[in-house]
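Give me the fold.
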Amino acid sequence: MSDVYNKIHYNYEKLSKTEQEVIDFMLQVEDAGKLKLKDIKDSLFISNATIYRACKKLNYATFNELKYAFARLKNEQQFKETDESDFLQILDGIKQDTVVTLEQVDEKNIEQICNCLLESRRIFCIGTGASSEVASEFNRNLKLIDCWTNAYSEECLIERIPQISTKQDVIIMFSVNDQLEKVNKSIIEAKENGTKIITVTNFVSKQLDAISTYTLRAYSSQENHKQLRSLLMLNVMSTLIYETLIIKVPSLS
């Protein structure tokens, strides 16, 4: 993983919500190396001080130092694009994303998620759009170890979950980005019932963090085919959870 992404990963939780918005903004623009302070201030309606604090918490002395770190990364990526074959780029991209995703896994977090699933009465697996395939596959795997579980990908069905969910149930949501507004509303309503919420999402997505009991982040690639690569990393995370569950179920271990 590049130095700038390393620093973001290991220091992201130290940032305030507003400071996280600064870093999220820089991650999402096409060329962060060309950003000016005014660009961020005008887009997020924040002060220079907030931007400076975000930089310092990532161990960059100044905004320019962080900006140049992004610029160097972009130059390195452009060099690789002209120096390697398309096939080697694909292999390297998948390898790097997988390594970064697995490096950021916290064993205690996986343990808590697995215990939460095994102790639940019912499990609602949610995924919309491309994420629905990951949710569906995870749902099938849970059935193999005799969990009460169903997969939900349609908004009209997800909206019904708060009507039946209780504090004995768990929702596990897979998402390569922030969910639709109606889906988020349903998740919040379910949490008000006491339902535990597990989200498996990408690196920069934070909208659901505030309502999640547990969050597991996969790395969100900044390369081409970002969504497809992120979807693959969600599959990596779901497989990790399932393999850990198998160890915890005495009849299967």
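The mean pLDDT is 84.
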